[in-house]
Amino acid sequence: MNEVEILTRLRHKNLVSLYGCTSRHNQQGLLLVYKYVPNGYVDPEYHQCYQLTDRSDVYSFGVILIELISSMPAVDITRHRHEINLANLAVNRIQKRAIEELVDPLLGYESDEEVKMMIT
After folding, report:
1. Residues of the chain scoring pLDDT < 50
2. Is the pTM of this model over 0.85?
C-alpha cells in the first residue's frame, strides 16, 4: 500500500498516472487503476535504432498493462501471425472496438460496469 501511495503522487510526462488500487480483500486479486490514455500505443524506437528511450519504456509499460488485463503472454507463437506480439493484438482489438475480446473474462468486464469503465 505504501508503494501505491507513492506511485499515485508520481507525475512525469512519460508515465500514466496511477489513481489507486482495489482493496487487498478483493477476491479477484489486487487491480491497479490508471488514467486512460486516448492516443494508443507508441511503437518503440528500439526496433529502429537498438537504443532504449523514454518511448520504449512507456511502450513496455503498456505491454505489461495489457498482459495484466488480458492474462495473455507478451509473445505467443500459437496466435495468428499478425497477433503473435500482444501489443499488435491489443491495437487490433482496440481499433476494432472489440476490447471485450482482449480482457480476461475473470475480471468481470461484461458483468461489472465499474470494471468495464476502468478497463475501457
Report:
1. 42
2. no
